[in-house]
User: Fold these one by one.
Assistant:
Number 1:
Amino acid sequence: MRASAASIVKEVTDTFARMITAIDEKDAGARENYYSREEFVSAVAGGDCFGRRGDWVKAITSCFAERDSQHLEPREVQAIPLAADAALLTSQDTVDMQLKGGERPRYRHAFTMIWKKGPVGWRIMHSHESWVEDSIG
């Protein structure tokens, strides 16, 4: 039976929300589980591109280690079904951090992700995220 567009949107946005919890908890292991092991294409973060999943996981782990705390607040999330087992998700977010050195930066942040449904659920095949420091605060 084919999934409805509404059910795809709900499943993907619910999975994304769980990934945000892992990000807020600085849990690199949990965050990495949202990326496909079988069909990983790439991850782009700022100006860095990762063509291998292992390199992406190392980058996530390193970034999380520099932070005492963080909170990512999705402001606009949109999921668009592309097929019964694929979806595009975009989000505009704000991120507040407490870095180990005491700095407290705030960022405007965005995700663009391609999700694919497999035997273990929805996983990210490709992601891109960008951010800029929020001077409005």
Number 2:
Amino acid sequence: MSENKASEKVHVEGTQFYRRSAFRDILRIVIITIVTFVAVFVLASWAIIDAGARQAFKEARDVRRALRIVGTEYYGSMTSIYDQYSPNGMVDGAAERLADISTRDGEVILYSWDEESNAPLQFEYRKGLYRVIYTDTGARDGITLGVEGDFHIYYSFEILRFEAQ
């Protein structure tokens, strides 16, 4: 019996090759492909949202300049552009004049206005899924009022829509 056991234990020296499972190879390729597609999708979505936000920011800067111009026009006619009881915060005709001067195609809501320097203190610009809120941070001496401010850009998407029947 000892001779039988000795012959069963054959020791092989050198490199031994093992056959890998085809299932493991396919699974690894599928996982790498899915991870790659998800990463590309996330990066592309981020780039598209970022480009749209930058465009909305540029248009909001144009709106700020146009608000100052329209405010000065209304000041010249001894009236104010600001109407706190209006849904968009502006008197009748001011929104149309603002659209003529600026390159915007979104909606402007004027929240507060400085009558002394004819400058916006706070307004909101909405375009598509982007919302830009401008808040003036300049000194109240009139020199930098309406020129220095913070723009906060928000992106939102519609989750549900209910229509009236």
Number 3:
Amino acid sequence: MEDRISARAVLDTSALLSSEKRALLFFAQVGLYTIVWSNYIIWELSRKMAGMGWAKETARSYIEALSDIAEWCDYRQITGGSYEEWLTDPDDHPIMATAIAGQADFIVTWNVKDFPPKRRFAGTTIITPDAFLTDLSRSARGS
């Protein structure tokens, strides 16, 4: 794991809606890493929460809580390059662009079909939420 203060991670919606979401947010709140996100991730998260039947106020509160601890970046500033050979789902391109624009060390995702764990692209490592939390826990203990 990178130095715990400088580690930056994009949490995609599969991580933000997973059973690990509380732990992921806690570790960000206590400064073990920085969450990086974008308007695209906020839009996708809102859409998926609505599809899952989240109450509007609950969804809004969750997004506001994330906004308080996450660092926003403009994924649209990444205009060059092509992800087609590596990312087969065009809906994942803005996730990768967010990671590149936000200089993220990690993309934390359960979408292992489209983002194979332990792969690296443009300096960003793909990792599952449970593996990321394990690494953060080790970092917190000084291991």
